[in-house]
Design a protein that fits this description.
It is built from 9 helices and 3 strands, in the order βββααααααααα. With 226 residues, the protein is mainly α. Mean pLDDT is 78; it is low at 1-11 and 14-60.
Length: 226
């Protein structure tokens, strides 16, 4: 199938079967899938690469109650019960209101329910509590991307990368947002950086995913590709 680039005035590029990213570091992993130029949420059940989630120990001290509540939330989330996970996490936050990770996980549960604005608020609360929270900035970018708010997404991805320049998922997301705003060269550069980072981290599946995206973007303007 030939991929045709939209005019400069159009901000949705027709890239098929492209995954924006999965947040795989320490916890629940929202992701976004762009298919035929549209962005939609991608649940864990649809993700063949889903792995059991680990609990992040962002707080200085942990407690059995904290661990148990987070484990329950993660179990509900991984079963696809995002509403149940949300309710569990709201209970958790009442008990541990200063726990940045709890707010981050609540954002993930809201994101999967397509409550993007609420998710962004939860992620921002996590950042208020932990300013150098690159994962949360990346997640906010993904929430904006799910609304096709590409410039806002780019701003958040940049913040994540300022904190962690070697954040491969954020580089990949950043590249796709750049592509949506017709910045192909910058998008390619960001993807190449992400590939090198994933290679250094020996994350072969991520390397393959990003290389596929890179090929699609490189050939999208090539009239010989069909």
């Amino acid at each position: 199938m030939k991929l045709k680039r939209k005019p400069k005035s159009a901000f949705v590029q027709p890239i098929s079967c492209m995954m924006l990213s999965i947040i795989t570091v320490m916890g629940i992993s929202p992701s976004v899938l762009a298919v035929s130029g549209q962005v939609s949420l991608h649940s864990p059940e649809q993700d063949a690469q889903r792995q059991p989630q680990k609990i992040a120990q962002f707080s200085g001290t942990d407690s059995p109650e904290r661990s148990q509540l987070l484990q329950q939330a993660n179990a509900l989330y991984n079963q696809g019960d995002f509403k149940g996970a949300e309710e569990n996490l709201r209970t958790f936050i009442k008990k541990f209101p200063e726990d940045a990770f709890g707010h981050f996980q609540l954002g993930n549960a809201l994101f999967e329910q397509k409550k993007s604005e609420e998710a962004i608020s939860a992620y921002r609360e996590a950042i208020r509590l932990q300013p150098k929270y690159a994962l949360a900035y990346n997640a906010i970018g993904m929430a904006y991307a799910s609304q096709s708010s590409w410039q806002e997404a780019i701003t958040e991805y940049k913040k994540a990368l300022e904190i962690n320049p070697n954040y491969g998922e954020a580089l990949t997301n950043f590249a796709l947002a750049l592509w949506q705003t017709n910045k192909k060269d910058e998008a390619l550069s960001s993807l190449e950086k992400a590939i090198n980072i994933f290679k250094a981290q020996k994350r072969g599946e991520k390397v393959n995913q990003v290389e596929r995206i890179l090929r699609e973007i490189k050939t999208s303007d090539d009239p010989s590709v069909s």
